Amino acid sequence: MGKYNELISDESLWLSATPTEAALSLPFHVTEAGHFLAQNGYTVKRDRHESFLMLYTLRGTGTIRSGETEFELAGQNACVIDCHIPHEYFCHDDWEFFWLHFDGASASAILDMLSPNGPHSVDMSRADGFSDIMPQIFSLIPNGDIESCLKLSGKVHSMLCILTSAAIKTERGNAKSGVKRDIDSVIEYIAENYKDQISVDDMIERIHISKYYFIRIFRRMMGVTPYSYLTNYRINRSKELLRSTSMSITDISEECGFLDPGNFIAQFKKRTGMRPLQYRRDFS
């Protein structure tokens, strides 16, 4: 269910696409897109829509509501909202913006990286190439052939990567002074001590932020929790030993900081899809 008051000028562009089976198999596909010149009173309100939505303001300001979150989307700012939950966007004055409904196997994952704490406005004024991608997407939508579907998926991916990178850079800039240095210090500590039984408390002994804030900002900057980063580091070191030595699984397990061979095998299979000996055979 939805309510629409589509007050847009005649110069507005509105494109629709019905994804083919080939398009649906790709990481991203587009269902609708447009370049709207909206007028006072323009409103879109939905309980649910089967897609994700990117909005990018060129001129004026729009108001975005997604679930319990509300924010303004001013010029050269962008956002992505999950349309599977109640949402609304509208303007009180003229609002010129690009918009794109998309979905795909990678959509939810990249949205989690972009907005782990909910949708928000991201300043794109210093993001090279971002505003140029949308016209390229518009030109590909009407074609519908395999090559265009592949290019379209790639363009959406590029757009979302630029947007996510800008969001993370902004958060880094807003973080407490020295946080990047603290994260680098912990990464260095892990590289030097991964063979030992170290905990998150051990990691933060040398830095000066709270444990909760450290875990949150580490995950935001590195894409994983500190403990997962440590485990992945150990797995990567074990791969080197499996490929380049004849050490036993027990010895490699101990060398890389795992509690016992069984835990090592389980963690290795969980992260690589194969057992250590299979990995050794495949890469020997």
UniProtKB/TrEMBL annotation:
Keyword Transcription regulation recorded: yes
Keywords: DNA-binding, Transcription, Transcription regulation
Protein's name according to its UniProt entry: Helix-turn-helix domain-containing protein
Residues annotated as domain HTH araC/xylS-type: 184-282
Organismal lineage: Bacteria, Bacillati, Bacillota, Clostridia, Candidatus Ornithomonoglobus
Gene3D superfamilies the UniProt entry points to: Homeodomain-like, Regulatory protein AraC
One of the record's GO molecular function terms: DNA-binding transcription factor activity
Keyword Iron appears in the UniProt entry: no
